[in-house]
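Researcher: Structure prediction, please.
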Amino acid sequence: MADFADFASAPSPSPIYNPPSDSSDAPATASFPEHDTLPTGAAKIPYTKWYRVWERTSPRDFYAEAIIIPFIFVLALVHIWGRRKNKRKASVWIAAHAPTLEREFASVGFDKRKQLADYGGDFSGLLKEKSAQEYVTYATGRQNAAFVDLKIKLFKRYNPITLVVETALSFLFETIRPPKEVMEATIYAFDGKEKDLVPVRSKAELDTKDSRFKGLPNSGFDACVWAVVHKEQMKGLRDERYDVSLTATKDHKNLPQWASVMSESAEVTETLLTKDLVEALEKAGDAFEYLIVTDQPVDKPAKLNEATPRKRIIVSLRLPSSIHASAYQPTMPIFEYFLKLPDTLVATAHFRGEVTRKIRATREEESRKLRKADEGEKAEERRLEAEKKKKEIRDTRLKGLSAEEQRKFLEREREKGQKKQEKKMSRKA
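Model: Predicted structure follows.
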């Protein structure tokens, strides 16, 4: 019997190369070194031109990539630039208006623990980025005003293709409004409901809630819809807002030629159109869009509970193309007037009984229409429910009959249906 040591001294087997039967199948560039080590019987794989990418391709094969990759790179750069530009513009706006907001409100921004001094001159922390084109902020803590919501809407600089398409469509169709950069602010008035709107943070505050608000002056004022509007915005505003559609449009001798009044009563206009407001409008110029005092919803209510009055003051101002704080000086007077308008309303917006009755009659007429529509819907629901029950009783009764009785029953139903149809035809004739 052979020992394992005899095999250890044996030489390693050499690989055997079997050439193909057809010499034309072997590539001309194949080479086989004598000392390559391959498993016994394994075929040698030649290194061919297929593995040399630089030899089997040319620049013309990458024309599509040469166009697409730079295009994607440019889009990414424009997107980053657009977002930064919008953020910088919103930061400049809040930096210019933050001192005014702090003078009028006890708390500015979403972090109620911070004062403006805590931001160290960088007031961008007061803003919250809702999207790449929209920034919002908030202020509260003022007499006669529960809070104010401020919204900054900017161009879609981060998406120039969409911006160009929207601009082009606005030229082709009147129903599509062109893109614009605006600041829209909404003040929600207390209207004598401080006890319901001011939050209670502790049990001690809850216990003293009645006494805390007992000595406050009445913050209520008469309901109305009144607006000063730039004439370029008038048609779009009527189409978009239900509350403004309740008013009549008239020019006023004290207003600039480009502005008009939308009011429910001439007395309301004479009360609210003050000298300070007219001066602020003249300074703002074309940057002013509208100032609205309303208690009605923006969208037309479909149900009675959607028509609940809620008194608000809205202002819309165009943003200048410049990103310097000094560019907001023309609109600063109208913005300050807007923040103080709740005080003016509480002091002066108490109209004669005749005017109040006329305004109330408009509200009641709209409520009557909604109530009638609601009753019609309920009557239709009751009719459908009665028909459903009647059908269930019929089906139950039909199941208990024999085949002959079912046939007679269906014939009687058919005859009744024909008679009803004949009566309808005769009545129409």
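Model: Confidence is low (pLDDT under 50) at residues 21-35.
Researcher: Thanks, that helps.
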